[in-house]
Amino acid sequence: GENVEQHPSTLSVQEGDSAVIKCTYSDSASNYFPWYKQELGKGPQLIIDIRSNVGEKKDQRIAVTLNKTAKHFSLHITETQPEDSAVYFCAASSAAGNKLTFGGGTRVLVKP
Amino acid sequence: EAQVTQNPRYLITVTGKKLTVTCSQNMNHEYMSWYRQDPGLGLRQIYYSMNVEVTDKGDVPEGYKVSRKEKRNFPLILESPSPNQTSLYFCASSLSRRSYNSPLHFGNGTRLTVT
């Protein structure tokens, strides 16, 4: 089955700096890669996603890149703010679309 | 308000005592799923359902049961809980049966402790 690895497990950045989280996946047939943000005491919430026919996608301060050949994708957060502090999960969808496999999560702390 | 509601939020129980965690969604979603979250392991899928009366095993189904008798409800049943089932559990739903067509909406979680 699919295996998704996520690094780093924790990330501490100064407010205003950039944060980058990287994920690799094992199934070359995977075709959809969402990112979820989990705030304290809440369930994860979708923040951005990318499909296998696209190399990069941006939404204000966040962007995702996908390298299908290398089977890795990354989340970039620019100009980090305290409210960006959370746990972030990457995921990969099976080609059949019947399941998402999540990475181990990255705890991001933005220091003011 | 569109939401996924799980109950209870916190549950402490003893080994072997059957329990049920309820999950309900008010968005008429087709797809529902249960995940457990453990440090460093991310979210692992327990069971999922793509339709009423249709359920399938995820990656870690051992020790759990589910049912989907109605579209809105998807309870998680632990017939004989053990300490290794101590975890944070999330129910999620999605409009589409295919994960690449619509996002997952998660509940706020149930923290279960089995002593």
Helix and strand layout, with pairings?
The complex is a heterodimer of chains A (112) and B (115).
Chain A: E1 4-7, E2 10-14, E3 19-25, E4 32-38, E5 45-51, E6 56-59, E7 62-67, E8 72-77, E9 86-93, E10 100-102, E11 106-111
Parallel strand pairs in A: 2-11
Antiparallel strand pairs in A: 1-3, 3-8, 4-5, 4-9, 6-7, 7-8, 9-10, 9-11
Chain B: E1 4-7, E2 10-13, E3 19-25, E4 31-38, E5 42-51, E6 54-57, E7 65-66, E8 76-78, E9 87-94, E10 105-106, E11 110-114
Parallel strand pairs in B: 2-11
Antiparallel strand pairs in B: 1-3, 3-8, 4-5, 4-9, 5-6, 7-8, 9-10, 9-11
Word description of this protein:
The complex is a heterodimer of chains A (112) and B (115). Chain A has 112 residues and is mainly β. In chain A, 0% of the residues lie in helices and 56% in strands. Chain A has strands at residues 4-7, 10-14, 19-25, 32-38, 45-51, 56-59, 62-67, 72-77, 86-93, 100-102, 106-111. Chain A is globular. Chain B has strands spanning 4-7, 10-13, 19-25, 31-38, 42-51, 54-57, 65-66, 76-78, 87-94, 105-106, 110-114. Chain B has no helices and eleven strands. In chain B, strands 2, 4, 5, 6, 9, 10 and 11 form a seven-stranded mixed sheet that branches. A four-stranded antiparallel sheet of chain B has the order 1-3-8-7, with no helix packed on it. Helix content of chain B is 0%, strand content 50%. Chain A binds chain B through residues 1, 4, 6, 9, 31-32, 34, 36, 41-46, 49, 51, 89, 93-94, 96-105, and chain B through 4, 35, 40-45, 48, 50, 56, 58-59, 90, 92, 96-101, 103-104, 106-109.
